[in-house]
Structure prediction request, 249 residues.
Amino acid sequence: MEAPVPAPATMNLGARNKTKIVDAGALEPLLGYLRSSDPNLQEYATAALLTLSTSSTTKPVIGASGAIPLLVEVLKGGNPQAKNDVVMALYNLSTIADNLQAILSAQPIPPLIELLKGGKRSSKTADKCCALLESLLAFDQCRVALTSEEGGVLAVVEVLEEGSLQGREHAVGALLTMCESDRSRYRDLILNEGAIPGLLELTVHCRAPEGAPNVLVLSSFITTSLLDPDRRRRRLDRRQRWRVTSVMH
Prediction:
């Protein structure tokens, strides 16, 4: 028998109704769905939590319920729709400091990068991945995790090159956060992945005034030396290697 879709996943709810649903005890069965090995139940639960996570009053309650580690587990092994909903729910929840710490503790960087690699760079999911990364990369352990992932920095640079305008601005923010934390450590990593062409193009198309300063600051961080002529070739070689690896897996 097919499981029923939880009401929050299928209704256009106001903030007050979302609070009432959470107060009525809806989170407990949703957490049970997240723990299930049934991908359909996981998908229903992530859709419902995505809807509920848009309310400022429910965000801390969802975080305190223990939902965040379960959402990250779905991000690692759920079906494509569930993964997309998880990213958006985590982004919504991350605006609360305690929730951001819980996301950090769940080690989300590897599955976020895997999702970026496997999806369309201009998708809404890529936008939210980069927006979430922009917040997470303020923490050293996430910067280390990103640079330890094969093709991790490149995945963000590719959103800078090929993403939607919003996604590209979040990619700039993520890369800038890295440079501001330790310029000498991260500048060459970003430069070697070929960020310059995307930055130059974005200076023309960036939405003013929100995104333009970040683009200019990041450009100043990583363009203090001339590009090695071989960097573009090395970047393409690395991109080809991890794309082949992704296909094999």
